[in-house]
Amino acid sequence: MRSAPDTMSQPSFLQQTLDGKTTLGLPFTLGNGVRVQVMDEGVIRFEPNDSDSRKLDLVISCGVHGNETAPVELVDRLISALYAGELRLKARVLFVYGNVDALRSGTRFIKQDMNRLFCRIPDVSDDLEARRATMLEMQLMRFFARAMQEDKPRLHYDLHTAIHGSLIEKFAIYPLPPMGKQFEPTEIARLAEAGIEAVLLQSTTSTTFSFFSSRHCDASAFTVELGRAMPFGQNQAVDLSDMERYLAALIEGELPQPELIPEHTQVFRVAREIVKESDAFRLHIDAKTDNFMPLPQGMLLAEDGGKRWTITEENARIIFPNPDVAVGQRAGLIIVPSRSFSRT
Ligand SMILES: O=C(O)CCC(=O)N[C@@H](CCC(=O)O)C(=O)O
Ligand SMILES: [Zn+2]
Q1: Does the annotation place 160 within a ligand binding site?
Q2: CA distance to 54, 96, 137, 144, 204, per residue, from 217 (Å)
Q3: According to the annotation, is 65 in a ligand binding site?
Q4: Which of 107, 114, 106, 97 is nearest to 41 (CA)?
């Protein structure tokens, strides 16, 4: 066990990570007994000294897209508060800065969108982003393995921001649960306590980080969208105080058990995923359309060669419209209101 670094005089873990100066290796202990270990570049674990008394195991990830900085700043504050002994740790917590190279360059990704690279079989020809996604999967499997044996709650919040504006600023995507399970209203009510105003229930499997931990680590996992992507230091427009308070409380072992989803929390189901199948793909709304913009029935939303996407659903809305994605990737989601929590 190493002795604790002099954290007061050191740059934050985020700054060290961005500077390429993280020291991997042996765990060390802070003055209050908290055990800390840098697991890989941008991946750090905190454990209480009496690890058996912990209430839950929690992964907080951000920066899977390198231009989405508000959550990265939030995570930096949480890590710094732990280092300073300002939080009474009652959980095992793994923090992840997802795509460190993309964070350095301030871009969504370097070569490939990392949030499309989970749940796949690794290949010798994998590039750096694909390898990093595989490494992160292994970190989460290892981290959650202990909670699975001991049946402690396992939570993963993968924090993002959206490319465009949103009529609803803070929302979450709830990955499709495995067969035999349903979407849990308590989880949605917890998200509401964290300031989340709408939750989208996924209707298909996915290749995202949150889908991975939901499906392969049996964690309650969510992609959380917290306002709009802005450069570091320019995130004052979005108020993340509820989310920050909620995550700090989880770190202190307080897992709320709300029974009712508040009236004002909107729940939607993904009705259709629009996949760009060729370069002929055309989106017939402005590519900068706000998320949650209503789509009138009968409207021709998109075309791809002979394929047409016409709105048949009542009260449909658009999420993540983006005609510029690579062929084979999602160019938008059509969502509809839902009050059912069953899987289908
Ligand atoms: O605003 C956009 O178009 C994308 C914002 C973003 O990065 N969203 C995530 C959602 C992941 C999920 O569906 O769970 C993504 O596209 O990876
Ligand atoms: Zn993102």
Answers
A1: yes
A2: 19, 16, 9, 6, 18
A3: yes
A4: 97
Q: Is the pLDDT of residue 286 over 70?
A: yes
CA of 193 to the centre of ligand 1 (A): 22
* CA–CA–CA angle 210, 173, 139 (5° rounding): 10
- Tell me which residue has its CA closest to atom 13 in ligand 1: 173
pLDDT tens sequence across 130-150: 999 999 999 999 999 987 788
Please spell the DSSP secondary structure of 63-105, one letter per residue: -SSTT--HHHHHHHHHHHHHHTT-S---EEEEEEE--HHHHHH
CA-based max dimension of the chain? 66
| 1 pLDDT above the threshold of 80 | no
Strands 28-29 and 35-40: antiparallel
DSSP secondary structure letter of residue 194: T
72: confidence class by pLDDT, cuts 50, 70, 90:
very high
Annotated catalytic residue within 187, 225, 277, 303: 225
Nearest CA to ligand 1 atom 17: 115
Q: Is 13 helix (H, G, I), strand (E, B) or coil?
A: helix
Say what the pLDDT of residue 24 is.
84
Any idea which ligand is nearest the CA of 222?
1
Question: Are 103 and 64 within 8 A, CB to CB?
Answer: no
This model of the complex carries an ipTM of 0.97
Ligand with smallest separation from the Cα of 163: 1
Residues within 5 Å of ion ligand 2, judged at the Cβ atom: 65, 68, 160
DSSP β-ladder status, 56-62 and 43-47: unpaired
Give 93's Cβ-side CA count (13 Å radius).
Answer: 27
Residue 135 to residue 79: CA distance in whole angstroms: 21
Residue 77: the pLDDT is 98
Task: Based on the residue annotation, tell me whether 254 is a catalytic residue of this protein.
Answer: no
- Residue 259 one-letter amino acid: E
User: Which pTM value belongs to this model?
Assistant: 0.96
Q: Which domains does the chain have, with CATH numbers?
A: 2-251 (3.40.630.10), 276-337 (2.40.50.630)
pLDDT at 113 over 70: yes
